[in-house]
Amino acid sequence: MDAENLVVVGSGPAGVAAARAYREAGGTGPVRLLTADADPPYERPPLSKEFLRGEAGLSLLDEDFLKEHDVTVTLGDPVVELGADRVRTAAGAEHRFTKCVLATGAEPVRPGIPGADHPDVRVLRSAADARELRETASGVRSAIIVGAGFIGCEAAVSLSRLGVQVTIVCPEDVPQEKRLGPEAGEFLLRWLKSEGVSVLRSTKLASIENGYRIRTDLVPILDAGLVVLATGVRPRIDLAEAAGLTIEQGRIRVDEHLRTSAPNVLAAGDVAFAHNPAAGRALAVEHWGEGLAMGEVAGRTAAGEDASWDAVPGFWSVIGDRVLKYAAWGDGFDHARPRPRGDGGFTIWYERDGKTVGVLTHEADEDYERGQDLIRRGEPVPGD
Fold first, then answer.
1. pLDDT tens column, 74-90
2. Is the pTM of this model over 0.85?
3. For the chain, which terminus, N or C, has the lower number of CB atoms within 10 Å?
């Protein structure tokens, strides 16, 4: 084995960012990226939007950089065992390491109800999922999406624009009421309706029959040509758990440098429960941008730099043609304070214990930028 080498497990934003940052920080040893995905590393945000609608192809992620900087990528062979200085894949290949970054991401959660695991019931997490969903949607007239998170809302609008009659089953009174508050949920509800998407509010899924018929507590039976589950994700921690790494709140516990409890093993992205010194506590985040940010810190740490993850987590969501920008610590708020604008835009400030802990904007970029600073410094919510 070379004096120094890096193995990265996972090809999402955190994994690719780790490989890139390791090289940029002067890491000279061989770098190998191992993934269960059959596709080369790709941009994932378009999967529920342009790619699902067939308006754009699969945008590869850092393809030129990986080739030019001697990063070996192995596709379609998941890592099944993590040891002290090596990993083993499903195909039986062993790869030794001096540093390893776990960026295994998350997988869709299928609720524990009858019929949720039927093979015709779709989820949306990977490029393969998006291809299958688009192909299926081309042959149906109606679809039911269970869940009103950002993926569910984005996919609903995309399918509606493909000519499918879409109904969202929303467990709350308005989409994302618990996460973003009722005011934000009302905006989302209006946007969905303007795109021709129907929303069954305060409705819980009871069962799915034959992959296309659902039963709920509100509407006894709904038939559709397609059922899509957008019911959240679960971090892929099996590998870390089996290796004895410290697990907390269903994720791998890491410090601000993204180091796990095992020497020479780091973790980044959806799978990490990472200490954020600016927040003063560990945070769980599932954003594309945070995958990139954490991956960069992990890669630089692996190369010997003193890097730390202290960013305010944030992401963008595109619902049709409308862009939402959100930055927050993400672990709760006491009050949501909406500030509508005359041009149709808005800002919602989130407060806890008298401090700004989040901001959600539409057509208010200056508040989004200002909000990140206020959140980091723990300043009060701005006045009217």
1. 999 999 999 999 999 99
2. yes
3. C
